[in-house]
Amino acid sequence: MPDLQFQPDQRLWLLHTPSTSYAIRLDENDVVQHVHWGARLSPAQARELAERRPAAGSSFDDAGGVPELAAEGGTRFGPAGLQVRFADGSRGVEWRYAGHDTDQGHLRIHLHDRHYPLRVTLHYRVHQDSDVIERWTSVENRDDQLPITVSRCDSAAWTLPHRDGYRMSHLVGGWNSEFQLRRGEVPAAETVFTSRRGMTSHQANPWLALDDGTAGEDRGEVWSTALAWSGSWRITLHRDPVGRVGWTGGHGHEGLTWSLEPGETLETPVYAGLFTSGGFGAASRAWHAYVSGHVLAHPGELRPVLYNSWEATGFAVDEAGQTALAARAARLGVELFVVDDGWFGERVSDHAGLGDWTPNPARFPHGLRPLAAEVHRLGMLFGLWVEPEMVNPDSDLYRSHPDWVLHMPHRGRTQMRQQLVLNLARTDVAAWTHAWLDRLVEEHDIDFLKWDANRPFTEAGWPGNADPDRVWLEHTRAVYQIMDRLRADHPRLRIEACSGGGGRADLGILARTDQVWTSDNTDPVDRIGIQHGFSQLFPAQVMGAWVTDNPNVATGRRTPLRFRFHVAMAGALGIGGDLATWSEDELKDAAELIATYKRIRPAVQHGTAYRLAGDGTLSAVGYAHEDQFVVLAWCPSRPFGHEPAPLRLTALDPDAHYREQDTGTVHSGAVLRHAGLPLTLPRGDHASVLVHLTRIAAKG
């Protein structure tokens, strides 16, 4: 069972995970103060830390310890995670402890304001198989008449012990360049990471890691957090001039307010945190195990090899063309055939038809059922692209319901990609959306939905609603609810999250989907960096990765087919090229590579991942699973005469031997750990290799 302890004489709580401890206490003013987050502590050690009091500082500075959720008010001048205004204009909170309770690893600490009818509960949850700590906050208005205005309500704040040289790691990017890992010094100031787009965003991701400036892939203390929310979000990192470091984060962004009506409770999304002393690699592996064990609905399944028709056809989608592509895909060993945009309404370009979710009668005269039946006859699952949250102004839906989109009185309606955003916070719009999706899945025997969301919020108003900023919360919650209902009513339905590529990748959406479309950029050279950043938090089994045509549509770069496959094999493999233009040799090679992927797929999707660095541009990923260890290595470029040195495989058992399945060569585990695995790379740029090792024996 999860380990939660309370020491009433110290008013101290001690939470244990398998390798770490988290300690908090109540001070004399009933403020929940942070004590410890890091290596395991005994109860006596936790008491010793709890008895320490911060050194007296300047009379101009904050006083006391570090609160678990800093509320506006008093001498707290750093970022406040809770900001409320009461009906009489008063702001801030003064706490009164109202008890706590525990249940199956879940600790709830209840606090009341000393004067106003406000109740706040701090939630902590630990699991016996994970070092991840889940935290969130609920705020209740206990007045029977007056509302409370909430301008910020974070899920949690995180505090670190004093270390010199703290460094932050985070993910930045844009469309076609998502998940770019950046590391840099933490400045003595406030650093804000945010999305104001109504989506998780391509530009930033709500994952953050801090280390003391010396951690590497295989060593060092790393504290990291991830927010389970798919709408706008904000994380504020604060380092004060004397070196104290912490951050607070949650849903929403600056400038928004929500009215908490009498009797209403606002519950924030989970903000999860993880400490490890094993470096960035150990942190990622712990996150991967947590996602598989506590986030995904179907972690034990193998993600199918899919084919997506978008790059082959664009909007020129019809039954004959899709049937021909399906036949070619089946020949390659594809297991899931996905029809992309262009199958519905008057959708001959991105200017029209979005919102009219019935098959185009000229292109599919008998609907989608004949195509779905043929795909199933070929032995594949049938999937379909949808974009339920958006609408073209040139559509029957918009002409009938122009009030259904996000908009503001006396303001224009900004179009992006010729689209507007439907207001799913409206119950009638959400009900209509669920109804057509439910009908589509049922009537067309659909196994898989690629759920896209291609533009951010603009003019995010809700005319006639007394609390219009609530749309920023309720839209995302409605997306969750629709997905949850669809999956409950159609248990075999699987969903891929997409937002113009990787614009909606987070723990919140992964609780409702099975994989993420990582990026619209399928160039394998660019994908190495994108996938490296993605892997900091997310496991390979949720990372959609395609092999597409030469030259690449995004970059114009030409790369060998084998190189494209080897990069895409690091995740959930898909094919996205125009198979009608592939030569017989290419089709033959692709079929062989897909068969190889299916052989290594259990290791890639269910194994433990190790990021491996080599000389120059050489990088690799290794996957350990049962007695298998699979290495995928890529070398985009190298100067003449500079062959990369052998790749050290530090995850292997030094007392075992390993056989290469393709060559039969036997290696000592100790040699592979210390001297490395020699790689036989093709000549030239864009070289890659796959090595499949099997443990065969221990030394006698």
UniProtKB/TrEMBL annotation:
Give one Pfam family, short name only.
Glyco_hydro_36N
Domain Glycosyl hydrolase family 36 C-terminal, first and last residues per copy: 620-693
- Region listing for Disordered, in residue ranges: 48-74
E.C. code: 3.2.1.22
The active site annotation covers 452, 520
Q: Which GO terms describe its molecular function?
A: alpha-galactosidase activity
The UniProt catalytic activity note for this protein reads: Hydrolysis of terminal, non-reducing alpha-D-galactose residues in alpha-D-galactosides, including galactose oligosaccharides, galactomannans and galactolipids
- Residue intervals of the Glycosyl hydrolase family 36 N-terminal domain: 32-261
Q: Keywords of this protein's UniProt record, alphabetized?
A: Glycosidase, Hydrolase
Biological processes annotated in GO: carbohydrate catabolic process
Q: Where does substrate bind?
A: 175, 340-341, 417, 450-454, 498, 520
Family as reported in the entry's similarity comment: Belongs to the glycosyl hydrolase.
What's this protein's name?
Answer: Alpha-galactosidase
Classification lineage: Bacteria, Bacillati, Actinomycetota, Actinomycetes, Micromonosporales
